[in-house]
Amino acid sequence: MSNLPDDPEGAEERERMLHSMLEGFFGDRTDEVLAQMRAQGIDPAALAGVPGAGAPDPAVMQQVLAQVQRLLSASGDGPVNTDVAHDVARQVAASEGDPSLTGGESKSATDALRLAELWLDAVTDLPPAGGPSHAWSRSEWVEATLPAWNRLVAPVATSVAEALATVLRDQLPEDLSGSGMPALPGLPVGALGALDPAEMMRRLGAAVFGMQTGQAAGTLSREVFGATDVGVPLLAEPATVLLPTNVAAFADGLDVPLEEVRHFLALREAAHARLFAHVPWLPAHLHALVEQYARGITIDLDVLEEQIRGIDPSDAEALRGALTGGVFGLQHTPQQEATLLRLETALALVEGWVTEVAAAAALPHLPHTYPLREMMRRRRAAGGPAEHTFSTLVGLELRPRRSREATALFAHLLAEGGPEARDAVWQHPDLLPDDADLDDPAGYHARRAALAEEQADVDAALAQILGSADADGTDPSDRGGDEGRDEDGSGEPGPAGGR
């Protein structure tokens, strides 16, 4: 809202000049854009310069127009503008402070991660992940994990970009030749002139999703303790990570020594890293389920159109706010429901295994193991602001809803068959417990035992067949027809074996 002194004649002149400058972008819809600015409490005349000035301030006008160019300058051809995502994530990560780590903080974190590996060796046969141990600031966490968030968001971002193109196609002029666009410092003439409306909409959608992705990643950087808290692997290479700033903030509200909290969180991080590193199909399995779910999401075009009606297409923040919720078709298909159930079960199994293994490793060393375990379970089950943001982003909350049941299943397997039975769950994706198994751990164990016995019988039969083949020197794949018969064609078996 303008607080400038009344200057009707100067205001009209400045607004005419602003109109001329914006016309290069918005053509015959410039009047509508100016009207929207007034409706939002923005005085176009005030933007155009100070009272008494004969021309608009180029620096102020550059700020008004540079956002348009920024939004439409996508990084590559992907559905997420990774430059915008990076900038927003870094800003959000530092918004509540991101102090540089001291040498002592880094050493305490990496020492805790190394000690965690020794404690875990005593309770599981899965070896250490093998990568380096890191102590990261929030910004360093953003830099390392943002590529993974961009990949997770990409499938639904594509759908939203197409929906935006459909709904907003008529809100921009068809001809953006740029012939009338003024030359401003730092804003090249015709920078946007080559873009047709469909391409502009694609880039606008990519920019909006970049903002949302950056917001989610930046918020998460203030909540996570390592690189594996959300249950989905976010690093390209094996590694273990702690964020000392977040660990200290978490411990500050507990009646538990900081050192004990640090060791407990290091155990969880190292256990996650072992699982993701040495169960090679698991990271791909989790990412595939997320992507499969995201690709099936539909966009409610009527709701989307209602939410963005009247929004200035150049106002990225207003558009991001309009997309904060309700644009996803929440009437899941049966395939969507099945994928969601498989994903939630897989996340619960990861969380349950880590909870059980980390607690077993911690019990001999940490007096507050049980309270810390329960606190972490509740924290994961409830989710946080970043997880809710990600839910808005792809219509999905990465929460292990049945982590308590999964923990009980792994505890039952440990009691019945030891660490080998507990860890054998990860031998193959087809052996993963399903939602029904979480309700019946004893039944799952019995079914696994029966399957193992059946498999042993098959292996024995195959060994007998292959042993017979080796005995007579014949490759079983060559048997058939007249092959393998005696020269007289009788087909009687030779001295070495029977049929």
From TrEMBL:
A Pfam family assignment: Zincin_2
SUPFAM superfamilies to which the protein is assigned, alphabetical: Metalloproteases ('zincins'), catalytic domain
Protein name: Zinc-dependent metalloprotease
Record carries keyword Protease: yes
Region (Disordered): 465-499
Keywords recorded for this protein, A-Z: Hydrolase, Metalloprotease, Protease
Record-level Gene Ontology MF annotations: metallopeptidase activity
tRNA processing among keywords: no
